[in-house]
Specification:
It is built from 17 helices and 2 strands. It starts with a helix and ends with a helix. The longest helix is centred in the middle third of the chain and has 32 residues. The N terminus and C terminus are likely disordered. Helix content is 60%, strand content 1%. The chain has a two-stranded antiparallel ribbon.
Length: 443
């Protein structure tokens, strides 16, 4: 009998057992999602990975249903969206779930990323797990951008015009590359067709990368709020029923928020100009991307000066791309030996400053660069504020992260997840209730 067969679980259901004997998918699911040992101290921030999976499935299902009614042609696209909203049974509901689902997806993933930054989930041995997560974010951005163009409204059309025009800043190959991306000299039917094709394809690529992300996660297990490794059986509890129940609570709360936007504020996160059909001859007064791109858009616009032979436009594109790509090397920028910010007093302060900085960049992205931040202070406009925010963003990763690892004195780490930081013999009190419960459970 092979090793794989020895690890197979015996199921009571004969049909399940028959399938599992030939294709051990049920044994795999049991090992990875039922009996899989999870750190017992995970908080609700660990719900967001599961929530992201739920939203991804929702987006794929609603996207397929919408594609059945959508027409990717410049003269028909806007009308087909209006037909979906008015004539297709529950078309309005499917479209609002899909449109607001994109925003929910980014909210969940951004919280997931900031949780990883706070608790040091990118540190060894989970570097590849983190990098796969950044790849998922890049794919999400590409998918969302192309999906935003499909309704062929004024803001989506001009947003595509602005974003693709940035590629012209690349020396020598800029113009040919832009024409290749557009499929034409301007944004037109060829662009809409290829954007529709890629918008339909990329979610399935995301599913593949998510599968790799989950496999990498299950090699070393989840990180935890203490940021320490699992050292004894009392540190863990099975995934099911403990975390399936906990994820269900988080999912219930999330669905209430999701339903609020779908049923009561379906257009709050969108832009009203997208209810005007695209007009290549009328430029909107102020072109802005969707809210989840605003911090990166602010970084793009904050570079307004040339450096040697590099023009401001190209530098802005490089800075915008680097703002995402820098996340790939975070595991090597952080020199601290302690993972969790819970035990890093200095890093914790600068983490919250980074979070505020990203919010400020988002506000800058939606404002006109020449508007004044405070009336009466003529030199302090949103362009200047965006430049300050951009400098801090990159300074956090390129300067603070490496330096803090050397100058910071972390707090004492717990000896294990089940044991307190200060031993009871030293006056630190009794063992946590959870540890005692785990010992009883094991017994």
């Amino acid at each position: 009998m092979s090793e794989i067969e020895m690890e197979k679980k015996q199921f009571d259901n004969k049909l399940v057992q028959w399938v599992d004997h030939r294709l051990p998918v049920f044994s795999y699911m049991n090992a990875e999602y039922n009996e899989f040992p999870m750190p017992k101290n995970l908080n609700y921030f660990w719900n967001f990975g599961a929530l992201a999976t739920v939203v991804l499935v929702t987006m794929i299902v609603t996207g397929i249903l919408l594609a059945m009614q959508y027409t990717p042609h410049t003269t028909l696209a806007f009308g087909s969206i209006e037909r979906i909203m008015r004539d297709v049974n529950y078309g309005w509901l499917i479209r609002y779930i899909h449109a607001n689902g994109a925003s929910m997806f980014f909210i969940v993933v951004y919280i997931h990323i900031f949780r990883g930054l706070y608790y040091g989930s990118y540190k060894a041995p989970r570097e590849l797990l983190w990098m796969l997560g950044v790849v998922i974010l890049l794919l999400m951005m590409a998918t969302a951008f192309m999906g935003y163009v499909l309704p062929w409204g004024q803001m989506s059309y001009w947003g595509a015009q602005v974003i693709t025009d940035f590629f012209t800043a690349i020396p020598i190959i800029g113009n040919p590359l832009t024409e290749w991306l557009r499929g034409d000299f301007v944004i037109d039917n060829a662009t809409l067709n290829r954007f529709f094709s890629l918008h339909y394809l990329l979610p399935f690529v995301i599913v593949g990368v998510v599968a790799l992300h989950v496999i990498a996660l299950h090699v070393h297990g989840s990180n935890n709020p203490d940021g320490i490794d699992i050292k004894e059986p009392q540190d863990t509890i099975p995934f099911n029923p403990y975390f399936t129940a906990k994820d269900s609570v988080g999912l219930g709360v999330f669905l209430i928020v999701f339903a609020f936007f779908v049923f009561f504020a379906p257009n709050y996160l969108g832009h009203p100009d997208n209810y005007i059909e695209a007009n290549p001859l009328a430029t909107p007064a102020h072109i802005v991307p969707e809210w989840y791109f605003l911090p990166f858009y602010a970084i793009l616009r904050s570079i307004t000066f040339d450096i040697f032979f590099l023009e401001a436009k190209l530098l802005g594109v490089i800075a915008m791309g680097a703002a995402v790509m820098i996340l790939l090397i975070v595991p090597w920028l952080d020199t601290s030996k302690v993972r969790s910010a819970r035990y890093r007093p200095l890093y914790r302060i600068f983490f919250w400053v980074l979070l505020v900085d990203c919010v400020i960049l988002g506000i800058v992205g939606v404002k006109s660069p020449s508007d004044l931040v405070f009336p009466g202070i003529s030199w302090f406009d949103y362009k200047t504020l965006g430049l300050i925010g951009t400098i801090y963003y990159f300074g956090h990763f390129l300067f603070l992260m490496p330096v803090l690892g050397f100058i910071e004195t972390p707090k004492p780490l717990p000896t294990s997840i089940s044991k307190p930081v200060i031993p009871p013999s030293s006056g630190g009190g009794s063992a946590p209730i959870g540890a005692a419960a785990a010992k009883k459970e094991k017994a």
